[in-house]
Amino acid sequence: MILHIHLSILFSYIALLHLISITLAQSENYIIHMNLSAMPKSFTTHHTWYQSTLSSALDNSQFTTTNNLNSQTSSKLIYTYTHVMNGFSANLSPEEHESLKTLPGYISSLPDLPVKLDTTYSPQFLGLNPSKGAWHDSNFGNDVIVGLIDTGVWPESDSFKDHGMTKLPSKWKGQCENSIHFKKSLCNRKLIGAKFFNKGLLAKDPNITLGLNSTRDTEGHGTHTSTTAAGSRVDEASFFGYAAGTASGIASNSRVAMYKAIWEGGRLSSDVVAAIDAAISDGVDVLSLSFGVDDVPLYEDPVAIATFAAMEKGVFVTTSAGNEGPEHKTIHNGTPWVITVAAGTMDRDFQGTLTLGNGNTIMGLSLYIGKFPSNNVPIVFMGLCDNVKELKKVKSKIVVCEDKNGTSAYDQLNNLVEAKCFGAVLISNVSDASLTQNFASIIINPINGEIVKAYTKSYNSNSKNSSSIANMSFKKTVFGTKPAPSVDSYSSRGPSKSCPFVLKPDVTAPGTSILAAWPTNVLVSHLGTKEALSNFNMISGTSMACPHVAGVAALLKGAHSDWSPAAIRSAIMTTSDILDNTKKHIKDIGKGNKVATPFALGAGHVNPNRALDPGLVYDVGVQDYVNLLCALNYSHKNITTITRSSSNDCSKPSLDLNYPSFIAFFDSGNSSSKTIHEFRRTVTNVGEGQTIYVVSITPIKGFSISVIPNKLVFHEKNEKLSFKLRIGVDRMTKLKKVSFGYLSWMDVKHVVRSPIVITTMK
Ligand SMILES: *[C@@H]1O[C@H](CO)[C@@H](O)[C@H](O)[C@H]1NC(C)=O
Ligand SMILES: *[C@@H]1O[C@H](CO)[C@@H](O)[C@H](O)[C@H]1NC(C)=O
Ligand SMILES: *[C@@H]1O[C@H](CO)[C@@H](O)[C@H](O)[C@H]1NC(C)=O
Ligand SMILES: *[C@@H]1O[C@H](CO)[C@@H](O)[C@H](O)[C@H]1NC(C)=O
Ligand SMILES: *[C@@H]1O[C@H](CO)[C@@H](O)[C@H](O)[C@H]1NC(C)=O
Ligand SMILES: *[C@@H]1O[C@H](CO)[C@@H](O)[C@H](O)[C@H]1NC(C)=O
Ligand SMILES: *[C@@H]1O[C@H](CO)[C@@H](O)[C@H](O)[C@H]1NC(C)=O
Ligand SMILES: *[C@@H]1O[C@H](CO)[C@@H](O)[C@H](O)[C@H]1NC(C)=O
Ligand SMILES: *[C@@H]1O[C@H](CO)[C@@H](O)[C@H](O)[C@H]1NC(C)=O
Ligand SMILES: *[C@@H]1O[C@H](CO)[C@@H](O)[C@H](O)[C@H]1NC(C)=O
């Protein structure tokens, strides 16, 4: 399924590039930042000023006549933005764009970039329990509003039933809008907001295929993410018999507001920014964004720009790290004022059983959704299975394939499907059972592979022999598999390119094989020529991990309504788990199951019950982020683009944000001078009153690490105390690319742990 998501992204990119090449010569969408302090007093609203500025731009460029200027202006203006930025979006010719740049109040403009999209059981896996902890203390996130910018919703899903839910919170200013096949009466006390945004997309190409001009989800992604974060409990959910059980969102009493800005025909920043603007003014508490823009500086990243305003208004923003792992520097949303979520596995496997004619029974991974006739099918070994012609000769058999020499199980499956083989056993290290969804197949590991090969070879070497035979069966779900969690291979890795001085990603959450609600008319799979439909689907990605953290944030907000977004982020990070269910450090599937570094794992794997009571938090105020932007040497304009304020105080620039993690860059291979890196942090005591914290450091080879002071004595709740962390290089021998350890503050009840990364990657 990860592959499916990749393909759809690729497709939308190709489609967009195609469009650009056709329409570039005429006009383009731009997001335009304006200086609100420069607005003349004669204008009563920012909207009328933007309109007037736009008409002047059209007037000055020779292509327009004054007669039809008003109608021109209104057709050129796409959105006026209110909360997320001072400015608007418009579809402009190159001349009009140039003319706009000369007008008073103009700051900068950005091209309208495309954005990239990237169970039943995950609540239990996270340790959530109705009678105690985060579910209990927050009443399942009661009255917290989770907004999602995504592909829409399927409102009829059982996961949006509102049984037992109380009246809407009075602070809610949003609503459900009527749209095609989406009457606002479909909303209820669970699904409380539904709006859609596609003016940017239509301005770029009026002929674009939207899917449906409606908040209704025609792709499935938004139904899945929103119900993962805050879906109601649904009994007897399953994916064709796999993962059967009660499905529940993480914050099952929170409300859902859907802002559809991701369309089958494309996904543009101008629509996404308008959606975030609406979510902020409607009053959402938590925003979940399972998409991002790659390779842009913060001041050109529409998600970073729009979420700065959300942060200022106290909205907690969770984003996905991206699905471009396992190489370093692949992360998007490496933005200091959001939480960035990596994806991990759970201790649950989906299995198929292979029974050989000699009585051997072998278990392997499978998510095959069909039925298999279990009657003594001939089984044959076909090596790399890279020759479709050869495969056709054995199509009535179970074919055994080996994944070697750069062939992938994915290519092999394509060959097997093309040859119309009966079934297959794939000998491979891949861990993604969803590959097998559409074809009767089992993935077995290389050790078991030798057993199967030995059995089938005995047949091949003696053709007179009665044939080797086997049975296969499917739909087995097993729990407690070890090790778990692990960071999955596809999850994008840090460091962040847009701001390497803040360690990213922040945390890992379940992202692989997540079961959640799905539109009943959107394909989940193909089975031969038959289309497979289901009201639940199991998919993977950081897109799935992100709403888990949105749900956890909703629980924390429900229990601690006074915590800032940075305090909630700190609580989630410092209480996360670094050990798996074998009591060893969490592993990285993408790096051959070696220990996962914080560039893959972040601070750890989210643990909602512990996050409820973190003891200390690292809080961050708006000016702290401004100090960081100043230290990045951004121009005044660039900072204003993000902060919307024309008077940014850059008197105390600092890259040393009060963040619950540490990253230090050192030059590699230089033996001349001893280098020292120093961090300063302030922690707030959110526990009960008087307490004493003592520091503990895990040593990092080659470095001396000290904390001053090494003891923090708090006299009361909400008291703040500061400390310094000093990292010195002992011997300037060749440094490792990535070294890491942890700093923990401990009192009798709490462990407040932060990762420390020392790297030569700049
Ligand atoms: C915005 O306008 C004010 C008043 O004209 C000016 O002082 C300020 O420098 C401007 N800011 C930017 C970023 O251009
Ligand atoms: C989509 O629907 C809205 C109203 O719900 C309408 O204003 C708009 O013109 C429609 N767009 C298209 C392309 O049909
Ligand atoms: C949209 O379709 C109409 C009618 O087919 C055509 O005349 C027009 O050029 C198309 N516009 C674009 C931007 O492709
Ligand atoms: C396959 O299943 C059939 C029917 O249950 C059974 O009779 C047969 O012995 C099985 N064969 C193997 C190889 O297990
Ligand atoms: C599979 O994993 C094992 C153990 O980690 C390793 O020895 C082997 O080379 C891997 N095989 C492939 C095809 O990657
Ligand atoms: C493996 O790949 C190499 C080079 O691509 C090729 O020379 C060799 O024949 C391949 N081995 C098999 C078993 O296909
Ligand atoms: C095939 O023959 C070999 C030896 O000739 C024997 O060991 C093996 O058990 C036979 N396989 C079956 C399925 O009868
Ligand atoms: C910003 O500029 C100063 C002075 O030139 C320099 O020392 C510093 O390294 C720069 N910071 C960054 C993040 O590039
Ligand atoms: C960033 O600053 C540079 C230099 O002042 C300027 O050319 C560019 O337009 C700015 N971009 C944005 C989006 O503010
Ligand atoms: C090592 O450090 C010295 C002094 O700080 C500097 O002149 C030299 O260029 C550095 N060498 C490398 C390989 O970074």
UniProtKB/TrEMBL annotation:
Keyword annotations of the record: Apoplast, Glycoprotein, Hydrolase, Protease, Secreted, Serine protease, Signal
An example molecular function term from Gene Ontology annotations: serine-type endopeptidase activity
GO cellular component annotations of the record: apoplast
Database matches in InterPro entries: Peptidase_S8/S53_dom, Peptidase_S8/S53_dom_sf, Peptidase_S8_Ser-AS, Peptidase_S8_subtilisin-rel, Peptidases_S8_3, S8pro/Inhibitor_I9, S8pro/Inhibitor_I9_sf, SBT
Signal peptide stretch: 1-25
Subcellular location: Secreted, Extracellular space, Apoplast
Chain ranges of the Subtilisin-like protease fibronectin type-III domain: 656-758
UniProt-listed GO biological process terms: proteolysis; response to symbiotic bacterium; response to symbiotic fungus
Start and end residues of each Inhibitor I9 domain: 29-117
Active-site feature positions: 150, 221, 543
Domain Peptidase S8/S53 intervals: 141-582
Function: Required for arbuscular mycorrhiza (AM) development during AM symbiosis with AM fungi (e.g. Glomeromycota intraradices).
Family according to the record: Belongs to the peptidase S8 family.
Protein name per the record: Subtilisin-like protease
Organism: Pisum sativum (Garden pea)
